[in-house]
Amino acid sequence: MNALQAIFRSLACLLLVGICGQSASAVDFAREIQPLIESACLNCHNEKKAEGGLRLDTRKGALTGGDNGEAIVPGRPADSPFYALTILAADDDEVMPPEKEGPLAKSQIERLKKWIAEGAKWPESAKLKLRPRIDFVQHVKPILQQNCLACHQKKNAEGELDLSTHKTALIGGENGPVIVAFRPLTSKLYTATIADKDADELMPPADKGGPMTASQTGRLREWIAQGAIWPRGVTLRPQAKAGVTPTTDTRELIAKIHARIVKRSKQDAAKKPADYSSKVPLTGAAYQMVAIKGGEFLMGSPAGEANRQKIEGPQVKVKISPFWIGKTEVTWDEYEPFMITQAPREKHGGRKDFDPKKHTLLDAISQPTKPYMEMSFGMGQEGYPAISMTQHAASKYCQWLSAQTGHFYRLPTEAEWEYACRAGTTTAYSFGDDAAKIGEYAWYYENSNEKYQKVGVKKPNPWGLHDMHGNVTEWTVDQFSADYFTRIKDGAANPLLRPERLYPRSVRGGHWDDDAEQLRSAQRRGSAAAWKMSDPQLPKSIWYHTNARWLGFRIVRPAKVPSAEEMYFYWNSAAGKL
Predict the structure, then answer these.
(1) pTM score
(2) What are the residue ranges spanned by the domains of the chain?
(3) CA-CA distance, 246 to 255, in Å (whole number)?
(4) Among 173, 366, 531, 558, which is disulfide-ready with 349 (CB 3.0 to 4.6 Å)?
(5) CATH 3.60.21.10 fits 251-572, yes or no
C-alpha cells in the first residue's frame, strides 16, 4: 500500500466512524437503538398509550407485539413490521413514524435493520422512557451557528475544523472526528461544551460566550445520541447568539408594562367595546381601531373556490374572542418615529447609553437600529403604509405603543386576521366572488402603478376595515405551516401556531404587486430569509426585510388582557430566532 492509498483509507475510516458512529461491531442496544425508540416510537407505544395494542417501553411488550401480531422477529428484519414500516414511502398511511412526525434517516433505519438481524438483543432490565426527538434544522443548527461557526468555518477553521457542512463536520479537525454518531460521550463536539468553565477545552470559550446553557448542551447530546442526523445540503453560517437582548428589555420591564395595562383595563371595564380613534402619545400620530365582536366562522377556502391553493384548507370552524383591530395598516406617520431615533443603539436595539436614573420605561424598550437605506424607497410617506419591517420590529412597535397607551397591542393571529377580513362573508373576497370588482376595494398589480398607495382610500369591507385585500401584505403572529388547518383542528378556540423558528412565519392579505387571485380572504404565504437578501450586514439585521417592499402590518388589541408572560411571548417571539 503506497502513501496515497494509506491516506485515502484513513479518510474513509474517519468518515465511516462519523456516519455510523462505530465500526462493523455488533449494534449496542443502549447506545444506538434505545435512543431511537424513545424519541421516535415511544410517544405512541407506551404503557398509557399503546396504539395498535403495541408497547415498546419494555422488551416483553416489544416482543409480544400488538393487535396485528409480532412487531419484531429476531434475526429477520424483513419479517419485522418494526423495521419494514420504516422503509415505506413517506406518504404511505402505514409508514412509521407517521408522515406528520417525519421519517427516520437512512443511517437510523440501517441500525434498526442490523440490530434485528443480529437477534434484536434487548436487555431484560432496560426500561425505556420518552425523550424528545431532535430535528437538526430546528434544534441543532441554531446552536452551532451561534456558538461554533464564528471559529469553525471554511474561512476561519480553527484546529482545521469546519462545521459549516455535513461533509466537513464529519471529517473533523486536526485531532480527528468530533462527531461520533450514537456516542455523545466520545464526541468532542459535545464533551467540549460541558467542560469546566475555566478549562482550556471549553467550547465556546468563556471569552466568546461560553459555556452554553444546559438546554443547548442537552440538545447536542440528544442529537448525537439519536444518530447525529444532519440533512444533506444544509449549510451553516455564523449567526448572532439567540436571545441576546439588552438587560433593560427584560421580563421585569414587561411586568411593569403589564401592571400599567391591567390598571388601565380596570378603569375601562365599565365601557362598552366600541370603535375609537386615538393618537400615539409620544408623537401625536393618529390611528383608528375597530371593535370586532367575537364569534364563529369557517376558516379557509372551500374546495370549489377559484384559484384555491391546497394550503388554504380543509376548512375548519373556529371560535374567536372579541378584539379591536386597526382600521388601516400602520402608517409611516405612526411607525417612523419608532424606527428612527437619535439614540445610539446596539444591534439588538437596546440603547448604548441607557441609564435607569434618567431614562424612562419607554427608553428601555428595544427599537430598530438606523436603517441602512431609505425605507420608503421613494414610494411615499405621509399617509402611506410602513413597510419592510421584520416581524420582530412590528412586535416591538406594539410593545412601544402599549407602554405609552396602557392598552395591550400585538399582531393578529392568522385566525383573527381572516375573521376580520371576511367580516361575516363566506365568499372569496369580503365583497363577493367577482374578482372584477377588486379595483374598488384594493390596490394590486393592475391599478397600483407599481407602488403602495395611501391607506384608507379604497372601499372598506363590511366591518369598516380598509386594505384587508392588497396594498401591503400583513404580518400575523403564527408560524406558517402548510398543514395549518389539520393542526389546529375543527372547533378550535382562538387558534395559534406558536412559532419555534424564524422562517417561515405567516403573512396575509396580498399586496400592490399581486394579482387579484392572491388577494382572496383565505390566501396565505410564509416569510423567507430571502426577504433580507440585500442586507450587507453579517449577521443580518433583525429589524429590516429590505427586499420585501410590499410587507407591512396592522395592530390588534384583544378585549381580554393576557398575562405578563404571554405579553413577553407576543412581543419577543422572533427575538434571536434563526
Answers:
(1) 0.62
(2) 22-117, 136-225, 251-572
(3) 16
(4) 366
(5) no
